[in-house]
Automatic annotation (TrEMBL):
Positions of the DHHA1 domain: 245-326
Gene3D superfamilies: 3.10.310.30, inorganic pyrophosphatase (n-terminal core)
Originating species: Nonlabens dokdonensis
PANTHER family: BIFUNCTIONAL OLIGORIBONUCLEASE AND PAP PHOSPHATASE NRNA
Entry coiled-coil feature ranges: none
InterPro entries recorded: DDH_dom, DHH_sf, DHHA1_dom, Oligoribo/pAp-PDE_c-di-AMP_PDE
Every DDH domain range: 18-169
Name of this chain's protein: Phosphoesterase RecJ-like protein
Source taxon at top rank: Bacteria
């Protein structure tokens, strides 16, 4: 966003507006963190703000301030559609294409509001009047901090907002581990700690909330791990039955794919998780170095994301899906071998 856009947006926000904030489908820590942090900011200026999520999000994020105020589009479509139709402004956070909002896609296309996009994924669609898109950013939560800075409003950061932003930075950087963690990211995190984010508390609430069922499911996932040394690749499958047998709850498989990627010498990892309710297999892709899983997800799995973390889906059976992976790997063999780690 340039200076002029910032000034215009400031002007728009200088009187109370009807605002809807939307994360992507299957919201993660960065999505819930950025939406609730922005909510905490906007309500201070007397705006009428609603947060509408395309679907539910995991229990391990439900301790977050304002997370109980989300309207779930799957459960309250009528109310959400009215809010979207009447909104002056719609903020799309942590996604850059309407289809990433799942069932809300049509309602977003039909909305006549002014759109504001704040996002760090590649290849943004062109729907927003105000577009703050930066693929070099660690997280949308870091961008919310920079956005508040541009608005000259960092003094409005409450401990709840600081906690929300810290949470999204923490989860999207793999605990400050990924390449996207810059010195600026760390400085932003430090400011958030100064403003009331408690790192130990947040880490405990996000990462130390395992259930025995989730641990058992992880055991199943690890026993299903397949290593394809020739392609420096490892993959994991989880069938609907395996999920059901271990009392699967939303969010339980978060991070499983990283175990495959943590193998020495492996540069590409993929997990396939059956979702019988949608007749699809949801997949997550992760890589080390410069192997581009965003490209792979776009080319083969009807998805996208970032260079080192992407997602997508398959409408084939699990067996056919795995065969598809095996059949496409030779195309990437040279790229996989070229990765320097
Ligand atoms: P995850 O594998 O953790 O669900 O997602 C990793 C990254 O890929 C996230 O940035 C997420 O937004 C993106 N992503 C996940 N699933 C999809 C998908 O189906 N389509 C697209 N375009 N991006 C996805
Ligand atoms: Mn993100």
């Amino acid at each position: 966003m340039n200076e002029e856009q910032i000034l215009n947006l400031k002007k728009e926000l200088s009187s109370p507006k009807k605002i809807v904030i939307v994360p992507h489908k299957n919201p993660d820590g960065d999505a819930v963190g950025s939406v609730t942090a922005l909510y905490g900011y906007l309500i201070q200026s007397g705006h009428h703000v609603a947060m509408v999520s395309p679907n539910d999000f995991p229990l391990f994020l439900k301790w977050m301030e304002y997370s109980d105020l989300f309207i779930n589009y799957e459960q309250d479509q009528l109310k959400a559609d009215t809010l979207l139709q009447e909104a002056d402004l719609i903020f799309n956070l942590d996604h850059n294409a309407f289809h990433r909002a799942g069932m809300m896609e049509k309602a977003l296309e039909e909305a006549t509001s002014t759109f504001v996009m704040i996002d760090h994924h590649q290849q943004p669609d062109d729907f927003a009047t105000y577009m703050y898109s930066d693929t070099s950013m660690s997280s949308t939560c870091e961008m919310i901090y920079h956005f508040l800075d541009m608005m000259e409003d960092t003094d409005k950061i409450t401990p709840e907002m600081a906690t929300a932003m810290y949470t999204g930075i923490l989860t999207d950087t793999g605990s400050f581990k990924y390449k996207s963690t810059t010195s600026t990211t760390l400085r932003v995190a430090a400011h958030l700690v100064d403003n009331g984010a408690n790192s130990e508390d947040i880490n405990r609430k996000i990462y130390d909330v395992n259930t025995p069922s989730r641990m058992k499911l992880l055991g199943v996932a690890l026993s299903n791990l397949v290593i394809l040394e020739k392609y420096r690749t490892a993959y994991i499958t989880l069938s609907q039955k395996e999920l059901d047998d271990n009392n699967f709850r939303k969010g339980d498989t978060e991070g499983f794919v990283n175990y495959a990627l943590s193998l020495d010498g492996i540069v590409f990892a993929q997990i396939f998780i059956e979702k019988a309710s949608e007749s699809i297999i949801k997949t997550s892709l992760r890589s080390k170095g410069d192997f581009d899983v965003n490209k792979m997800a776009r080319e083969n799995w009807d998805g996208g994301g970032h260079q080192n973390a992407a997602g997508g889906k398959s409408e084939l059976s699990m067996e056919e899906t795995v065969n598809k992976l095996i059949s496409i790997l030779p195309t990437y063999e040279n790229e996989l071998h070229a990765v320097v780690i």
